[in-house]
Design a protein that fits this description.
The structure is a homodimer. Chain A is built from seven helices and two strands, in the order αααββαααα. With about 150 residues, chain A is mainly α. Chain A has a single domain (about 5-135), classed as Arc Repressor Mutant, subunit A (Orthogonal Bundle). In chain A, strand 1 (about 55-60) and strand 2 (about 65) form a beta hairpin. The relative contact order of chain A is 0.16. Chains A and B meet through helix 1, helix 6 and helix 7 of A and helix 1, helix 6 and helix 7 of B. The complex binds FE2/S2 (inorganic) cluster (FES) (2 copies). One FE2/S2 (inorganic) cluster binds near residues 96, 105 and 111 of chain B. One FE2/S2 (inorganic) cluster binds next to helix 6 of chain A. The structure holds a DNA duplex (30 and 30 nucleotides).
DNA sequence: TCTATTTAAGAGTTTATTGTCTTAAATATA
DNA sequence: TATATTTAAGACAATAAACTCTTAAATAGA
């Protein structure tokens, strides 16, 4: 799979949050219910993102999580790298250490091009854009189309 | 990672075999030594490929493995699908079931395009080509450049 | 035929990923 | 201040991926 499950969950949550008001803290429990993601697992992933200042959380009643300014302006690539790390965009397609034109493997030329196209696609896409389009076109954010963008 | 380790090992072995004579059976032990891949693990991966008629093996002294005609004409995509399955090229980037334009997620349009570019890159590249170029340019097939194409 | 060699097959182990559960810390509100 | 609510943190469990080991089957060559 291109992205880990953690990453995919993190992206879905990010898009969810991007579709919400900037100020309000959103309950993780409610989000995990709506997106059908394990609550505790999602919490851990979001903690990674708060550690990277892409989100911020607030404890207690009325508490929850929201995107920071940085997070709202972030691209999918930023989120992916925060969760899965940059390896996908730096590593050799054949898993050899030190991918580079100095010591290319047979796939190198093709791969750096394809890799750049993956990266470019993630870089071009901002969370707010995605959330806006998702809301507008009622794209789904969970298995069945039952997700409600409000 | 884009491809599983099994897949990457399988690809490296496939390129290795493509650089060898069509008729001779190549010792898996020798190949696993040269490519620095666990012998038993590699054997299992190659068994998958023989099951798909991309390779054929022969037991006993002077035994080994070689590409079939089908295997020699195969593209990287064929090898990848034989080992990792077609999921990478059919599944939703957000892991939602049933990726398709009928029930798109917010990433769908971008992803099918990028996915096609990955597939295209693997499809364009045949094993024999890769082996020929690798041999010619002494591209590396293992960690250090010490691999010898003969 | 006997032995050594090599792949096949399957059980078992280790490690990483994914997911669950419990307890602690913060905080709003009664 | 006491309680309920919510995230934080870490231990724990289940599953999957990666890797190892053992035994069986095929076969070349002595
Ligand atoms: S060295 Fe293999 S892709 Fe760059
Ligand atoms: S439905 Fe998500 S990528 Fe197609």
């Amino acid at each position: 799979m291109l992205l880990s499950k953690s990453c995919v969950y993190g992206l879905r949550a990010s898009i969810y949050l991007a579709s919400k008001s900037d100020e309000e803290f959103n309950s993780i429990k409610e989000m995990s219910d709506k997106l059908e993601i394990s609550f505790h697992f999602l919490t851990k992933i979001l903690q990674q993102l708060t550690a990277e200042s892409l989100m911020e959380s607030y404890k207690g009643p009325k508490g929850g999580i929201r995107l920071t300014k940085k997070g709202r302006e972030a691209t999918l690539l930023d989120m992916v790298i925060a969760i899965d790390g940059p390896e996908l965009f730096t590593q050799c397609a054949l898993g050899l250490p030190g991918c580079g034109s100095a010591t290319p493997c047979p796939l190198h030329e093709s791969w750096i091009e394809t890799r750049a196209s993956i990266q470019g696609m993630l870089e071009r896409t901002t969370l707010s854009e995605l959330a806006r389009e998702g809301k507008q076109n009622k794209f789904r954010l969970m298995a069945d189309g039952s997700f409600n963008w409000d």
